Model the fold of this input.
Amino acid sequence: MKKILAVIDAVNYTAQQLDAIAAVTSLHEHTLTVLMLEDTKSANQLLSAAGMEGLAGVYYQKLRESEHEKKELIEDNYSAIKKDCKEKQLTCTIKNIRGIAEDEVISESRFADLLIIGKALSFPYLYDTNPTGFVKNMLTHAQCPVMVLSEENHLIDGVAFCYNGTYSSMYAIKAFAALFPDLINRHCEIVYVCEKGEKTIPYKEHLQEYLKAYNAHLTYKILTGKPDSAIQAYLDTKTDLIGTFGAYGRSRVSRFFNSSSADNIIRNLKGPVFITHPSGHS
Done:
């Protein structure tokens, strides 16, 4: 049995977020911990002595009132999550966490097998990027594989292993297989983009032999063109499959794509993706 973490913004909770998490955790027997996270970095900065200097008394009072309203909202959301979990028969532990969002989740990920986050998840006080700074930080620094979910909830029926023969792409396959062996048995595609006109899948026999141990129902899809654009277009038509990628944000030697290419895929994400970063080989 594996341990899965799922992050929910304590202030901005919707039942649809739980539906997407439940769709993933129902694929195999796992223990689920929902991190109901309240980011305190922005509020602490504004309520500090340095932050108060720039605020007139009336604005500081409104900020205090806003913090009180936020606390009440978080309490309501906690009750809503408990109720929704019971209605969906979703067994999980709900963990309330206050602190700097990135730091708290990275620490929790050290003791987990998978981290689930939504692609729009963010904890900024002001404007953020797309993908959000929080998501990019998790993809780079989380200490377990990360699954990024789109806003839409899709029925998951298999996996698309994005593979190019590199260590990082194979590392992602092995990490996914350890978590979701039943999904490989259900439907498993090897997605390969021709590099320099080479249509032969690298180490194909080795890959087949490895996945045979999981009784994989294998199919192959060979694409042409720029890797990130080609894979993006293909995954857009396969929202029932989880796409896998290796080594976000690591060295050019080990990573499957560079960070900007992966960001493009996540920005336009329609289905779930699974991303690893084997630091020992970066």
